[in-house]
Amino acid sequence: MARFFVSSRELEAEQIFLTGENAQHMKVLRLKPGEEVLLCDGAGREARCVLEGEGLRVLERRASAAEAAVAVSVYLAFPKADKLEHVIQKATELGAVEIVAFPTSRCVSRPDEKSLQKKLDRWQKIALSAAGQSGRGVIPKVLVLGSYAEALRRAAQADLGLLFYENEHAVTLKMALSEKPYRSVALLTGPEGGLSEEEVAQAREAGLTVCTLGRRILRCETAPLCALSAVMYDAGEF
User: Fold this and answer.
1) How far apart are CA 189 and CA 226, in angstroms?
2) pLDDT for the residue 187
3) Mean pLDDT of successive 10-residue stretches along the chain, which has 238 residues
4) Between the CA of residue 146 and those of 150, 164, 204, 213, what are the distances in Å?
């Protein structure tokens, strides 16, 4: 069934007319009267519709069945090249509700203010495309924070805030996930050069649990996706 993202206001109408890129996409698909499509508002609500003439008649409105019961936010320090784009795409497919980028002392690359809005627009489009491809009912938000301290404060608001550090050997991810029940999780990983000992100490002070992802060193674009997959498994999503 073809899937289109529309605004929440459009989703509430009894008859819906697609415009812009959605209208063009519908023409490319050559949909015929009587065929059904799925409209999503990108915030967890969807409507099953049937094509009638040039419009769509709503048959059923419902909560999206594709969303995870646990809300997972992926926080990663700015990586080099297009690694962030890769994480945005794959984290969206895996079910993350937001992807948050932030600077650390060892970040080699970070966008300047002049180009940031253009990059944010591109990153959000990647999330939109990945959400549509994977059948999501929610389009994850892509955010950029101005400091590491701000990332820690925000991540600490989740039921479970986890920071992954290659020199941590005592606390495993499995142990951290078994500490207490959770409905929201924040996963925080560092850049190519890793996090400094001072930054790890700041995370502990902020209330995050510092844990390991195993004996192997994972690349900065692999670690968040590994952790996200493990959380989804633990939450019963796989």
Assistant:
1) 11
2) 98
3) 90 89 87 91 92 90 91 96 95 98 90 86 95 93 96 98 95 95 97 95 97 94 97 95
4) 7, 20, 20, 27
**Do the beta carbons of residue 43 and residue 8 sit within 8 Å?**
yes
- Report the distance separating Cα 122 and Cα 158, nearest Å: 27
Beta bridge partners of 141: 98
Q: Give strand ranges (E) for the chain.
A: 2-5, 15-16, 36-40, 45-52, 55-63, 71-77, 98-102, 141-144, 160-164, 184-189, 209-211
Q: Residue 181 to residues 68, 137, 160, 178, 207: CA-CA distances in angstroms?
A: 15, 25, 9, 7, 16
The dihedral formed by the CA atoms of 105, 109, 111 and 114, expressed in degrees to the nearest 10: 100
Cα(99)–Cα(151) distance, integer angstroms: 11
CA dist., res. 95 & res. 136, Å (int): 8
Q: From edge to edge, which strands make up the β-sheet containing 55-63?
A: 2-5, 36-40, 45-52, 55-63, 15-16
Burial (CB count within 10 angstroms: exposed 0-12, middle 13-18, buried 19+), residue 152: buried
- Exposure string (b/e) for 210-238, b if CB count within 10 Å is 16 or more? bbbbeeeebebbbbbbbbbbbbbebbeee
Instruction: Show the domains of the chain with their CATH numbers.
Output: 2-63 (2.40.240.20), 71-234 (3.40.1280.10)
